[in-house]
Fold each of these.
Amino acid sequence: MPDRYAPQRILLVNPFGIGDVLFSTPLLRAVRRAFPQAFVAYLGNRRTQEILRRNPNLDVLFVYEKDEVLTNWRRSKLRGGQIVFSLLRQIRRGRFDLAIDLSLGERYSFLLALLGVPRRIGFDFRGRGRFLTHGMAMDGFQDRHVVEHYRQLLEMIGIRLLEEELELVPTADDRAEATQRLHSLGILPDAMVIGLVPAGGISWGIQAHFRRWSKDGFIQVGRTLCQRYGARILVFGEPNDHAICEGIAQAIGPAAIDLSGQTTLGQFISLVGSCMLVMANDGGPIHIAASQGVRTVSVFGPVDPIVYGPYPPTARHRIVYQSELPCRPCYHQFRLPPCPYERACLTNLSPEDVLDACESVLSDVA
């Protein structure tokens, strides 16, 4: 691209989950600062829309949910087609002159080319970047963090990514609701609050359990943190996680409260921001906690924490995983192979391993 190229209307595309979208927020901030007068839009999915609506660097958000389109298409091809064409009309009216496609596929860049977006940059993953005007060849996210891959992509348009922190700004209403909720639960402002997220991994669908540490492990960690620190425990989860979250909270004892399925995303963000520590499986909640400056301890099984761990990596974030297992990380190029070892990467992790990590990040708490 020309050295002095200054796009006026920019569209970012990222159809993935909460963690992936949060990883793109340093890129989004760098784009805004490089082109402060530009109109910046983002195409994301239904699950991440509340994350993006809170981003101060966006002018407009387009929401595309593939499952919704397919459901409507099965009921009525006319209705399904109307949803897609309505979105395409909106994008065309945006008259974008630059698209940054983070989808790793060719569908979006093909449609953007049809809609007349003249410059389309993104990752040429396995030759799927043929409709990009500027593609960066890659075999998948590996060897370095996703944010670092985004940093390299930005260099293609002469932008330097200087501020690395993930950006997620809770609203005033979010904060007020979190304060009210803590008060209603009898949690005093000076109490040590620790969050546990024992499920997660919803983006993996039926394979989500391959990312989850044991229920008994969470119970033992929660009990010990209550005993050693006098902590109050908030157990978070999706509505579908209620059974496991309720069981863990009851087993920990009266200091633990099950909030699974009882918070909006905005409330979750602010409640997590009120925690001294969040302990969770690999997944979106740990990255929400990191974005709020909260200490984290995360359990990683098949996924490489170098690529998908809390970002930026600091002493406030500890990752617990089986480094000596030669088979991990087995999640590679967005695929999870069958496991012949009965998930040893997670089942071999002891509560003591996780507790040591928790105490390490809490060691500087007065």
Amino acid sequence: MFLNAIRLILLAVLVFTCGGCGDGDQTVIRENAEPNAIVTGRVIDSSTLLPVGGAVVTLLCNGTKLTVTTSNSSDPDLAGTFTFFGIVPTASYTGYELTISAPGYAVTYSAVQVQATSDNMPVSVPLGNITLGKPCDVTVIVSDHGIPVQGIVVSASNQYGYGSAITAVTDANGSAVLTGLNQEAFYHIVTAPKYDASGNILYSASSSSSYQPQNSARTISIAVTKAMSGGAIQIIGSNLTGNITTSTTNSLSQTYIKSDSIIRIVFNYPVVLTGSVSATYLNDLVPLSDPDYGKVVTVTTLTGSLDQSGTILTIANSSPYIKNQTYTFIIPVVTTLNGQTRSYNFSTSSPFFVNPVYVTDDSLTGLGPATILKADNFNGTSGATATSTPAQVYVEFPEKVFGTYRVISTKDGTVVTPFSNNTMTIGSFDGTIAYAANSGGADGVVVFKLPIDYFIYLPDNRTGAPSEVTIAFDVMDADGNRFNKTVTLPVQ
């Protein structure tokens, strides 16, 4: 019977044209489009699927609202139905918004598209069954690092952009209750910015979070941070250096200092020291026979002081830092931002990585154009004890270097093996600083061991059986000293 009724309505529209939505209230105008469309539907309960009579259905036409009420008829074909007459078809990229409300149900929103026909013949838009879900209340707790924030506007808007947002304002406990959310809908829940009486922003708006009541707790929390606080301590300047540039590469190294360096760090907020500044290092640049070999040593000769503004920290060491050693600094600083105590993680925080800190060798024994490099397979033998057993080849530098190298060839007795022209980069994590004797090397000195790529394995250089590697280097140390030449190195 419902379909028969629609057919009768369509026939009636052929002989009767409504002048607009709601007897002249219609404001939607489309060229060559007659106000002859019909929008129909049925409203049902989402859980029982039974018709809902007496529901108020509103169709929004560019600001003009058309309202009808669903049928309370005892006829099962008519119960819960609604019809809008004389609707103007819309362009393909626009549409109408349908709102349905009824006692005991959450307000439901949806979009309606009314397509025009090429000949302006009447068009029917059957929306079918539209379900109404039950409402619920959701409590939102707003806090700043655990402290409730009062006076924050909280809103829940339909995830698809339909309808007006449901809003509430937090009380002294930071609590706001959003009333009438549809348990079956999806929402974006956000906080609005908060200003003081002078118009200065106190809290920025929070980003949206997706929320569906039927799959979530009815109490949720939103963390906000005071505006203009930055939210954390940051280092905005330092005399620590981390970029090493050669003619062929720009490699990011560890942060480095000289053995007599005085460190200065600039913070974005005034800070206070909550303890002593110290540093640790792994004591591996000593012979294996040293009783402290392999132990973590704490540096107790450091002093840290803040300037009058509390933003510049100066760290001095009454003893020189150990050259070629890597230090990890412990700097216990905090600041108070908007009543909250914030600390700084020197190991991972950006924009500057303070740890680890490498101590350069800026003495005459460091890298230079005349530096003599050595190749060693660190098998514990050389000279009279040289063996024919191949092992991984390393090149020894007097200190850590950055840059590039290219293996040209190797020689094992009478066999010469040429290599491709691939250039390899020496970065901050390549190679190791070690006491040579700890790895079976021939020299009991501190060296920078760089494993040569391609997994080159060669035996010791022996009388009558040369073992050599030819490599082109273009490297620099942390002080900017450059070594740019091709060398042929016998393997120790």
Amino acid sequence: MQNRRNDFQHKLSFKLVIENQPISVETLDVKGMITNHYFAQAIYDLAWSSFVTKLDDKSEW
């Protein structure tokens, strides 16, 4: 599952950067969000920080 997520994040971040659109990312309070035990696993599973890192790296490149 990790490889599919990683591949998807690479493809999506590349597509967003290539389209030459302004990109803004909202800062989320993940620590506060994971206190809800019903959503904690889903929030961790999104790997939001790795996507933002890929997006940042590609936009600088």
Amino acid sequence: MQRRNRLSRSRDFDAVYRHGRSVSTRFLVLYWFPRDEAEGDARLGLAVPKGTGGAVVRNRVKRQLREAWRAQLDDVRAGHDYVLIARPGLAEAAEARGFEWLRERVAEVLAKARAR
């Protein structure tokens, strides 16, 4: 995922949290919000709280979530901003069950978002 397709400013995260919609599963929460300029690629922001683990664990989870998101880009609406939040327990479950399991969890939360 290229940097231009990532949310990095706190004001962008705040806009998605305040004005967006959300769905959640056991391990992930997804917020989304259509941008004013409906053209362009979708942008993703990741939030992995400290309760998930130390810095090494959080960064590993972020890398894995970015890769899982990249695999689902065909199912993502263009012109939207997304924030994907990892819930506590995700790191341990992903490590125990593997990357394919994590991709399925990301696909699950995206499917719930499309249904709304």
